[in-house]
Amino acid sequence: MNAAQVAVEPLGAHELYPRLAGYVRRSLTQMGVASADLDDLTQDVFVTLHRRGCRFSEPRRARSWLYGVARRTASNYRRRRRRDRDREAHAPSPQALPTPNTYIERAQVAEAVETVTAALSPTARQVFHMAGIEGHSAPAIAAALGIPLNTTYSHIRRARVRLSRVLLGVLVAVVVVSTILSGTCTAESIDDRQRLALRSDPVATA
User: Can you tell me the distance from the alpha carbon of 149 to that of 140, in angstroms, rounded to the nearest whole number?
Assistant: First the structure.
């Protein structure tokens, strides 16, 4: 029996954890999970894998499956965090109105990234994830996924353009809220800030 005929033993949660726990942890970080909760949520992802009894012969397929579970886990996590913040906001408090910094939260950026990645095809999502989170070069990604290098560059470029547009919207919203809370809000000041933000957007000025 030659090497090509030897069957690859499928890997389950126990075998995949030491290989891909770091990947899942980095993914959850990018999705807005606080550092204090990363260990627990990483464990939750692999517990889901164990309970479903899934096994994979190809690490690439395992990464894609784990990424999908991580997305759902992070989404549920952010939903719980929002409910907690809503309860705290409605609780009696001697404090005055929240400062503008209250509105500049990591969760907003994470949700913007989630909005962009959710709209991508599975291949484009994995390309953007490997480039943006893991820091792999385009040639390395193309080789790992078995796709043309030009296609890899195209996926990265389109995802970054979409992300810049979504983040620009977050930036404008934060600036407007900060202006309102500072008591200096006028229609002209908001328009000026929006025009300034658009001039800084390479997509809008292209």
Answer: 9
